[in-house]
Amino acid sequence: MAHPISAFQAAYISIEVLIALVSVPGNILVIWAVKMNQALRDATFCFIVSLAVADVAVGALVIPLAIIINIGPQTEFYSCLMVACPVLILTESSILALLAIAVDRYLRVKIPVRYKSVVTPRRAAVAIACCWIVSFLVGLTPMFGWNNLSKMRRTQEPNGSQEFIITCQFETVISMEYMVYFNFFVWVLPPLLLMLLIYLEVFNLIRKQLNKKVSSSSNDPQKYYGKELKIAKSLALVLFLFALSWLPLHVLNCITLFCPSCQTPHILTYIAIFLTHGNSAMNPIVYAFRIKKFRTAFLQIWNQYFCCKSAKNAPGSTTEAEQGN
C-alpha cells in the first residue's frame, strides 16, 4: 500500500510541475520558431532543435517519472529501471547536441568559405541521428546488465517469486559505478572539457579575424565574424548553464561512491535535481534574450497566433481590414 504524500514531497512535486510547465511550452516554441523561420534553418539551429526535443522530453517524461520515483512505489526491478533510464538517455542526448553545436560553430569560423559544402543538411541529419543512437546505447546500458540487481539479490531474501519486487528509487536500481565511472568520467566530463577547448579556440579564431579585418578596413568579413562572436557567446552561455546545472549532481554521485560513510544532506540532493531539470527551461530564455533571430521568430509567433488572434476574430475586424485594403 502506498504511503501518504508528505508536505515535503508535495512541495517537491509542485516545483517539478512548475519546471515542466515552463520547459515544455518554451522548447516547443523553439522548435516552432525553427520550423516557421527560414533564417533558422542552418545546421546549428537543427542541432538546437535536437537539444529542444530532449528538453521537451525532460519536462513531459522525465519530470513525471522523477515524481513517481520520489513517491517510491513498490514495483518489479526492471520496471523501476525503465523508469530511471530516460533521464540518462536525454542527458547524453543534450551533451552530444551541445558538442555538435560547438563543432559546428568551430567549422563556421575555421572554414567559412567551405562551410556550406562541408556541413550539408544531410550530414547534419546523420550527425543528429548518431547522437540519439549513442544516447540510447549509453542511457540503456543499465538495462543490459550494469545495474544493482545482483547486489540486491545477495543482500535480500528471495520471496519465492520470479519477480524481484522493490521500492522504486533511482539509487536502488542504478549502479553508482555506472553513474561515476561510465556515465560521468566517460560520457559527461570529457565532452564538457572538449567543448570548453572548442569554444576557447572559436573565440581565439574570431578575435584574430576581427583584428585582421579591422586593420585592412574590410567591413563585410568584420560583420560576419562579429555576428559569429555574438552567437558563439550565446551558445557558450547555454553550455555554461548546462555544466552549472549538471555537475553538482555528478559531484554528489562521486561523494556517494567514493565516501560511503559521508552523509549528504537531502536538501542538497533535491537542489541538484532541481538544477538538472530546471536546465531544460533555461535555453529558450537564453535564445530569446541573446539571439536576435529567435527573438524575432518568437515575437512573430506571438503576434500571429496568440496576441492578435482574438482581435482578428472579433466582430467587425474583417470589415475594418477590408476597408483598410
Automatic annotation (TrEMBL):
<protein>
    <recommendedName>
        <fullName>Adenosine receptor A1</fullName>
    </recommendedName>
</protein>
<keyword id="KW-0449">Lipoprotein</keyword>
<keyword id="KW-0564">Palmitate</keyword>
<dbReference type="InterPro" id="IPR001068">
    <property type="entry name" value="Adeno_A1_rcpt"/>
</dbReference>
<dbReference type="Pfam" id="PF00001">
    <property type="entry name" value="7tm_1"/>
</dbReference>
<keyword id="KW-1133">Transmembrane helix</keyword>
<keyword id="KW-0812">Transmembrane</keyword>
<feature type="transmembrane region" description="Helical">
    <location>
        <begin position="235"/>
        <end position="258"/>
    </location>
</feature>
<keyword id="KW-1015">Disulfide bond</keyword>
<feature type="transmembrane region" description="Helical">
    <location>
        <begin position="12"/>
        <end position="33"/>
    </location>
</feature>
<dbReference type="InterPro" id="IPR017452">
    <property type="entry name" value="GPCR_Rhodpsn_7TM"/>
</dbReference>
<dbReference type="GO" id="GO:0030425">
    <property type="term" value="C:dendrite"/>
</dbReference>
<feature type="transmembrane region" description="Helical">
    <location>
        <begin position="270"/>
        <end position="289"/>
    </location>
</feature>
<feature type="transmembrane region" description="Helical">
    <location>
        <begin position="81"/>
        <end position="103"/>
    </location>
</feature>
<dbReference type="GO" id="GO:0005886">
    <property type="term" value="C:plasma membrane"/>
</dbReference>
<feature type="transmembrane region" description="Helical">
    <location>
        <begin position="45"/>
        <end position="69"/>
    </location>
</feature>
<feature type="transmembrane region" description="Helical">
    <location>
        <begin position="124"/>
        <end position="144"/>
    </location>
</feature>
<keyword id="KW-0325">Glycoprotein</keyword>
<keyword id="KW-0807">Transducer</keyword>
<dbReference type="GO" id="GO:0045202">
    <property type="term" value="C:synapse"/>
</dbReference>
<keyword id="KW-0472">Membrane</keyword>
<keyword id="KW-0675">Receptor</keyword>
<comment type="similarity">
    <text>Belongs to the G-protein coupled receptor 1 family.</text>
</comment>
<dbReference type="InterPro" id="IPR000276">
    <property type="entry name" value="GPCR_Rhodpsn"/>
</dbReference>
<keyword id="KW-0297">G-protein coupled receptor</keyword>
<comment type="function">
    <text>Receptor for adenosine. The activity of this receptor is mediated by G proteins which inhibit adenylyl cyclase.</text>
</comment>
<feature type="domain" description="G-protein coupled receptors family 1 profile">
    <location>
        <begin position="26"/>
        <end position="287"/>
    </location>
</feature>
<keyword id="KW-1003">Cell membrane</keyword>
<feature type="transmembrane region" description="Helical">
    <location>
        <begin position="184"/>
        <end position="206"/>
    </location>
</feature>
<dbReference type="InterPro" id="IPR001634">
    <property type="entry name" value="Adenosn_rcpt"/>
</dbReference>
<dbReference type="GO" id="GO:0001609">
    <property type="term" value="F:G protein-coupled adenosine receptor activity"/>
</dbReference>
